[in-house]
Amino acid sequence: MAGTEEFVEADNAEVIIARIEHKSRKIESLLKQFKPVEALKTALEVSPPKTRDERCKSANWIVVHRAIMAIKDVDGMFSLLDPEYYDILMKYLYRGLYAADRHTCDQCLRIHEKLTEKAGLGCTLRALADTVNIF
Protein backbone atom coordinates (compact mmCIF):
# COMPACT_ATOMS: atom_id res chain seq x y z
CA MET A 1 0.00 0.00 0.00
CA ALA A 2 1.21 3.48 -0.85
CA GLY A 3 2.22 5.66 2.05
CA THR A 4 2.87 2.78 4.45
CA GLU A 5 6.65 3.00 4.17
CA GLU A 6 8.44 2.39 7.44
CA PHE A 7 10.32 5.28 8.91
CA VAL A 8 13.28 5.12 11.28
CA GLU A 9 12.34 6.58 14.63
CA ALA A 10 14.17 9.45 16.29
CA ASP A 11 15.98 7.20 18.79
CA ASN A 12 18.01 5.83 15.85
CA ALA A 13 18.82 9.32 14.61
CA GLU A 14 22.29 9.26 16.15
CA VAL A 15 23.13 6.11 14.19
CA ILE A 16 21.90 7.72 10.97
CA ILE A 17 23.88 10.89 11.65
CA ALA A 18 27.02 8.80 12.23
CA ARG A 19 26.50 7.18 8.80
CA ILE A 20 26.04 10.60 7.24
CA GLU A 21 29.27 11.83 8.85
CA HIS A 22 31.10 8.81 7.42
CA LYS A 23 29.66 9.58 3.99
CA SER A 24 30.73 13.20 4.40
CA ARG A 25 34.34 12.21 5.05
CA LYS A 26 34.33 9.99 1.96
CA ILE A 27 32.92 12.82 -0.17
CA GLU A 28 35.47 15.31 1.13
CA SER A 29 38.23 12.85 0.25
CA LEU A 30 36.89 12.53 -3.31
CA LEU A 31 36.63 16.31 -3.65
CA LYS A 32 40.26 16.70 -2.52
CA GLN A 33 41.16 14.25 -5.30
CA PHE A 34 39.28 16.48 -7.78
CA LYS A 35 36.59 13.87 -8.39
CA PRO A 36 33.38 15.90 -8.00
CA VAL A 37 31.18 13.53 -10.02
CA GLU A 38 32.31 10.56 -7.92
CA ALA A 39 31.56 12.62 -4.82
CA LEU A 40 28.09 13.36 -6.15
CA LYS A 41 27.48 9.68 -6.94
CA THR A 42 28.51 8.76 -3.40
CA ALA A 43 26.23 11.43 -1.97
CA LEU A 44 23.28 10.20 -4.01
CA GLU A 45 23.77 6.44 -3.73
CA VAL A 46 24.11 6.18 0.01
CA SER A 47 20.90 7.83 1.13
CA PRO A 48 19.96 7.54 4.79
CA PRO A 49 16.96 5.45 5.78
CA LYS A 50 13.59 7.18 5.61
CA THR A 51 13.23 9.26 8.71
CA ARG A 52 11.06 12.05 9.98
CA ASP A 53 13.94 13.42 12.03
CA GLU A 54 14.80 16.84 10.62
CA ARG A 55 18.35 16.67 12.01
CA CYS A 56 19.05 13.66 9.79
CA LYS A 57 17.47 15.26 6.74
CA SER A 58 19.44 18.47 7.28
CA ALA A 59 22.72 16.66 7.88
CA ASN A 60 22.27 14.64 4.71
CA TRP A 61 21.31 17.73 2.69
CA ILE A 62 24.52 19.46 3.79
CA VAL A 63 26.58 16.55 2.45
CA VAL A 64 24.69 16.38 -0.86
CA HIS A 65 24.81 20.18 -1.16
CA ARG A 66 28.60 20.10 -0.85
CA ALA A 67 28.82 17.62 -3.73
CA ILE A 68 26.35 19.54 -5.92
CA MET A 69 28.19 22.81 -5.41
CA ALA A 70 31.52 21.21 -6.39
CA ILE A 71 30.26 20.42 -9.91
CA LYS A 72 31.78 22.89 -12.36
CA ASP A 73 31.24 21.11 -15.68
CA VAL A 74 27.53 20.22 -15.76
CA ASP A 75 27.67 18.76 -19.27
CA GLY A 76 30.67 16.64 -18.33
CA MET A 77 28.88 15.49 -15.20
CA PHE A 78 26.13 13.88 -17.25
CA SER A 79 28.61 11.96 -19.35
CA LEU A 80 29.76 10.24 -16.12
CA LEU A 81 26.51 10.10 -14.14
CA ASP A 82 24.35 7.03 -14.64
CA PRO A 83 20.61 7.54 -15.30
CA GLU A 84 19.79 5.67 -12.08
CA TYR A 85 20.81 8.82 -10.19
CA TYR A 86 18.62 11.26 -12.14
CA ASP A 87 15.44 11.07 -10.04
CA ILE A 88 17.33 11.29 -6.76
CA LEU A 89 19.37 14.24 -8.03
CA MET A 90 16.20 16.02 -9.14
CA LYS A 91 14.73 15.73 -5.63
CA TYR A 92 17.85 17.27 -4.13
CA LEU A 93 17.82 20.06 -6.72
CA TYR A 94 14.35 21.00 -5.54
CA ARG A 95 15.59 20.91 -1.96
CA GLY A 96 18.35 23.30 -3.04
CA LEU A 97 15.87 25.63 -4.67
CA TYR A 98 13.84 25.59 -1.46
CA ALA A 99 16.94 26.60 0.52
CA ALA A 100 16.73 30.01 -1.22
CA ASP A 101 20.45 30.77 -1.11
CA ARG A 102 21.18 32.56 -4.39
CA HIS A 103 24.41 30.72 -5.16
CA THR A 104 22.79 27.36 -4.44
CA CYS A 105 19.71 28.24 -6.49
CA ASP A 106 21.87 29.29 -9.45
CA GLN A 107 23.75 25.98 -9.37
CA CYS A 108 20.58 23.94 -8.92
CA LEU A 109 18.89 25.70 -11.84
CA ARG A 110 21.92 25.10 -14.10
CA ILE A 111 21.88 21.41 -13.29
CA HIS A 112 18.07 21.26 -13.44
CA GLU A 113 18.07 22.61 -16.99
CA LYS A 114 20.56 20.02 -18.20
CA LEU A 115 18.92 17.21 -16.22
CA THR A 116 15.52 18.01 -17.73
CA GLU A 117 17.06 17.96 -21.22
CA LYS A 118 18.73 14.63 -20.48
CA ALA A 119 16.03 12.83 -18.47
CA GLY A 120 12.86 14.51 -19.70
CA LEU A 121 9.91 15.94 -17.82
CA GLY A 122 9.10 12.57 -16.26
CA CYS A 123 12.07 13.01 -13.95
CA THR A 124 10.67 16.33 -12.74
CA LEU A 125 7.18 14.93 -12.29
CA ARG A 126 8.42 11.94 -10.31
CA ALA A 127 10.43 14.21 -8.01
CA LEU A 128 7.48 16.50 -7.38
CA ALA A 129 4.97 13.69 -6.95
CA ASP A 130 7.00 11.62 -4.49
CA THR A 131 5.66 12.58 -1.08
CA VAL A 132 7.28 9.66 0.75
CA ASN A 133 10.97 10.15 -0.04
CA ILE A 134 11.29 13.79 0.89
CA PHE A 135 14.88 14.75 1.54
UniProtKB/TrEMBL annotation:
<dbReference type="InterPro" id="IPR036743">
    <property type="entry name" value="ARPC5_sf"/>
</dbReference>
<protein>
    <recommendedName>
        <fullName>Actin-related protein 2/3 complex subunit 5</fullName>
    </recommendedName>
</protein>
<dbReference type="InterPro" id="IPR006789">
    <property type="entry name" value="ARPC5"/>
</dbReference>
<comment type="function">
    <text>Functions as component of the Arp2/3 complex which is involved in regulation of actin polymerization and together with an activating nucleation-promoting factor (NPF) mediates the formation of branched actin networks. Arp2/3 complex plays a critical role in the control of cell morphogenesis via the modulation of cell polarity development.</text>
</comment>
<dbReference type="Pfam" id="PF04699">
    <property type="entry name" value="P16-Arc"/>
</dbReference>
<keyword id="KW-0963">Cytoplasm</keyword>
<comment type="similarity">
    <text>Belongs to the ARPC5 family.</text>
</comment>
<keyword id="KW-0206">Cytoskeleton</keyword>
